[in-house]
Amino acid sequence: MLADCYSRDTPLLPAMHQPALLSSLAARRDMASDMLLRGTGLDALALSEGRAAVSPAQLLAMLANLAKQDGQRDVAFELGQQWLPGHYGTISLALLQAPNLAEALSLLITHQDQLCPLLGPRLQVEGKELLLYWTDSVGVGALMPFLVELHMTAVSALCRWLADRPLPWRYCFNRTPPRNLAQHQVHLGSHLQFGCQLDAMVLDSDWLHQPWPRSNPAAYAMLQQQLLRQGRPQYSLVQVLYDHLRAQIGNPPTLEAAATLLATSPATLKRHLAKHGTHFQALLDLVRTHESLRLMQYHGYGQEELAQYFGFHDARNFRRSFKRWTGMAASLPFSLAGAPW
Amino acid sequence: MLHLYRVPLLVFGLALLGLLLLYQGLGELKPRADWQWMDVVGEGGTALMATIWLLQILSSRPRGRVTALLGLGLAGVALGGAADCLDEFFRLQAGANWDNWLESVLGPLGMLTLTAGLYFWRQEQFSLNEQLLKRERLFRDHRAFDRITQLANAEYLQQQVALERAARPQAPCSLILLDIDRFHAINRAYGHGEGDRLLQAISQLLLLNLGNDDLLCRYAGDRFAILLPGTDHAAAGRIASHLRSVVGQLAWHTRQQGIRLHLGARVVSAVMAGDVATQLAALNAELEPAMPLQAQAS
């Protein structure tokens, strides 16, 4: 249902969670609080007393203000170091006690409304490789590269801390390389690839079940119970629709069917999507891009098979569409030299 | 910093006002047709510009002899210009020449004072340069400096490597990267404020252990880069292991708990040749196989 989803205006985040983290970082950088809150409509006093709740759009505006003041271009990485597990109540305590990477990622994905409401993490395990990729949840616009750096640093730093060793992640960025790589090299590592089709972190899937030394299984079980009692987590409308489109990808999906699923009218759904900087066809193209790249790289699908899978009339039609989605030719063999998709 | 100069600025304002009252009291207003607009713009502009320079200087400098001289000089020039400009609006009694005195004393005296101020400023700058020597090496770009450590960043480092190799293509030029062991764990355990203080201390420590020709940069995060012009690979390796042992010797105590941290660092070094970005990427990759078990954070 549409009402179960959060939007960019849902007051989702208590002031003492991510907003407090941003405030303390701004203070350490000698940035005045009215500068940090400019354009958010938030009251500095209410925020510092923990009375306000902050929406994704307001969090986004605060991050944009921080990014604007960032001469050294390191604020995304510095924030990322502190983003997870964070001080977000039960979910942070549960992350701290996660017994391994698989559990930690499962918590991150399930409770993205509390942990990462701006970008949604998606996990894909294909044979020996695991892929964690990030998609826009609320229409983040030009802040996407900044948020990708922040979230990738957050997950890498969390794993390094809890595993008590750095994990050999490889990183793919859906952007051109930045002018200077120093921050990426120090905070993420030197396996960096730019100009990819999606923002993803890749790792051997053996790491998923390596036990982490900090975990206390009894405490973890209790915290999981507590999380269950907190009620069902929310997902953003865009992420819910992405899941629906992916499940229905072969059918092929329509706006009307999606609206019915969300118990709303097509016009209302359109309006909500526009508010999040996207529209039905754009989202469908995104899901088809991700699916075709995955099927090509890991399952050896060719153009004919993909055209059939997506319900295109013929391969030529598919080829043209694929070129439009990705700017690339859909020709096999499809592997970006170790980089996924 | 303008609040430091409230009283001098008030005196300056009163002097301007006094000039106006003096001309108004002792002279009579010329008819509008007699105003020489070219002169008004030229002389008034000098006064206005000198006032702007005065405010810029005062707002950016701490108090002291140099600031006093620069400020007095610019104030003199501004008042001289203002007197010159008021001359255009008021006709004074025939035979009165105090206004000539005012113009020809205030202006030149101001310039003389300003010149003295600039002379001492130059001396002050020499001594500041000496302090900044190992941080900036003969090229200044204030945007490149990190807020916490006051060191230049990676972009500045790349510029410096290029400059150094262009200036002395024959001489070897080495680079060291130094990464603090388990710095992230210190941040997690004692807070990022403690991490910042530690980075400041380590940058001071490294500066004390470098030669006058060397350049220390904060590459990113807890990684430092040291550029060693005229140093070959063997010498750079010796310096690198010395710097590593210096960091290991530091008895750092956390501010809140007073706990002694045992620090360690990893170092790599190379002679710079070929593409700078490629070589930096290779050096960073070389640092990566961390040895986290060797050094514990407390």
**The CATH H-level homologous superfamily of the largest domain in chain B:** Reverse transcriptase/Diguanylate cyclase domain
CATH class of the largest domain in chain B: Alpha Beta
- Strand line-up of the largest beta sheet of chain A: 3-4-7-5-6
- The overall number of domains of chain A is 3
- CATH topology of the largest domain in chain B, by name, is Alpha-Beta Plaits
Got a strand count of chain B? 8
Taking Cα atoms only, what radius of gyration of chain A do you get, to the nearest Å?
20 Å
- Classify the beta-strand content of chain A into a percent band: 5-15%
CATH architect. name of the largest domain in chain B = 2-Layer Sandwich
Main pleated-sheet profile of chain B: 4 strands, antiparallel
Radius of gyration of chain B: 29 Å
Low-confidence stretches of chain B: 291-298
Helix content range of chain A? 40-55%
Which ranges of chain A are low-confidence, i.e. pLDDT below 50, for 5 or more consecutive residues?
332-338
**Termini distance of chain B?**
42 Å
The share of residues in helices of chain B is: 55-70%
Read across the widest sheet of chain B, the strand sequence of neighbours is: 4-5-3-8
InterPro entries (chain A): AraC-type_N (IPR032687), Homeodomain-like_sf (IPR009057), HTH_AraC (IPR018060)
Keywords (chain A): DNA-binding, Transcription, Transcription regulation
Protein name (chain A): AraC family transcriptional regulator
Pfam family, one (chain B): GGDEF
